[in-house]
Design a protein that fits this description.
The radius of gyration is 18 Å and the shape is globular. The strands form two sheets. A six-stranded antiparallel beta sheet has the order 4-3-6-1-2-5, sandwiched between helices. The longest helix has 12 residues. By secondary structure, the chain is of the alpha/beta class. The protein folds into two domains: about 100 residues, Elongation Factor Tu (Ef-tu), domain 3 (Beta Barrel); about 140 residues, Nucleotide-binding domain of ferredoxin-NADP reductase (FNR) module (Rossmann fold, 3-Layer(aba) Sandwich), CATH 3.40.50.80. The chain has seven helices and twelve strands. It is a single-pass membrane protein. May mediate the reduction of outer membrane cytochrome b5. It catalyses: 2 Fe(III)-[cytochrome b5] + NADH = 2 Fe(II)-[cytochrome b5] + NAD(+) + H(+). It is found in: Mitochondrion outer membrane.
């Protein structure tokens, strides 16, 4: 599938730096047809620029929705996020589908989702795939890290899911802000202790899969860096290696891509 244009229908700010954008599907397309956990590579060329700016985003809408919704956190000097925060209803965005993690119902007994910041989007998509399917009995544990409590995205939706599916889904929120008075939050960072609480006691005999998505520093500390400039999974490292998890038990996403990886994507996309 090549790049297609999506028209922005509506947009709203969900907190101080994150915008939700809902796009109309192209033509007479009834549903997006995206796989359950997939990303969209967005492309735009700034005025005066020779090459396009590209950035992958994971929709928070489902494949059966009649629209595509993106959740975009704005970063300082972030060209893609700034462009999307300035996009007005009626304007278009060029996108291309990128398959990510091939999720299948009941493929694993237990999923542990570890997210940081905007890295919640592929986890939210995975959660909806599991919890919206009454035949899927997969147990899911979410560990979601942010700087402050106000940075927690989709909290209302996540809490509603945890309440409705209390026998299947649990959440752990971690904030760097150690001054927070909220006793329901873990303070500091995602540590070995925090991860151990979410993982089964006997990893060798338990069918568990850990998905990790966050900034490169967080990803490296928890699961080890991706390989091949981000194109391959690489070896398991960090805390998960210390806990005894194997390559088959871990899948790494990138919440933000390395400069080398983006340069390579930009070169390839500029020739399409």
């Amino acid at each position: 599938m090549g790049f297609v244009s999506l028209t922005l229908e509506e947009a709203r700010m969900v907190n101080h730096d994150t915008r939700e954008l809902r796009f109309k599907l192209p033509g007479n397309q009834a549903t997006s047809g995206l796989s359950s956990v997939s990303s969209l590579l967005t492309r735009h060329t700034a005025t005066g620029s020779w090459f396009p700016t590209l950035r992958p985003y994971t929709p928070i809408s489902t494949p059966d929705d009649t629209y595509i919704t993106l959740l975009v956190k704005q970063y300082p000097n972030g060209r893609a996020s700034t462009h999307l925060h300035n996009l007005a209803p009626g304007q278009t965005l060029s996108v291309k589908s990128i398959p990510e993690f091939a999720y299948k119902p009941n493929q694993h007994r237990h999923l542990v989702l570890v997210a940081g910041g905007a890295g919640i989007t592929p986890m939210f998509q995975t959660l909806r795939s599991v919890l919206d399917n009454p035949k899927d009995k997969t147990r899911v544990s979410l560990i979601y890290a942010n700087k402050t409590e106000s940075d927690i995205l989709l909290r209302k939706e996540l809490d509603a899911m945890a309440s409705q599916h209390s026998d299947q889904f649990t959440t752990t929120y971690v904030v760097n802000d150690t001054k927070s008075n909220n006793k329901d939050l873990e303070k500091g960072y995602v540590t070995k202790e925090v991860l151990s609480k979410a993982l089964p006691a006997n990893l060798e005999n338990e069918d568990v899969k850990v998905l990790v998505c966050g900034p490169p520093a967080m990803l490296n500390a928890i699961a080890g860096a991706k390989g091949g400039l981000g194109w391959t999974q690489g070896k398991v490292g960090g805390i998960l290696k210390d806990l005894g998890l194997t390559e088959k038990q871990v899948h790494k996403f990138y919440e933000a891509l390395s400069r080398k990886m983006m340069s390579r994507i930009t070169f390839v996309a500029s020739t399409v």
